[in-house]
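Tutorial handout. Part one gives the primary structure; part two gives the three-dimensional structure as tokens.
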Amino acid sequence: MIDWQRWRSAFKHHYTAPLHASFKQFRLGVALFFLGLVILYGGTQMLEPSLTQELVVALAVLVIACGFTVSMMAHVRMVISRVLRFWFRR
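Part two.
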């Protein structure tokens, strides 16, 4: 049986957290994204075409994807948090 009250409470707790916590998560995602871009650029410019270069590029794409996902999830959390704060202040 699903405990909807527990889910509702967890949802409200997650999305009404202070914005600085969400922004910290957003900054982490952006930092990972740009770190992946630096690895990608370095791998393509400094390494000869080889299996090593392909593995470095694959790692860079993975880091870029993780950074993008983390930052977008944090951004969505901030938007939902602002909407909920507006809604509950009425």
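Part three, for discussion. The two ends are 33 Å apart (CA to CA). The chain has a mean pLDDT of 92.
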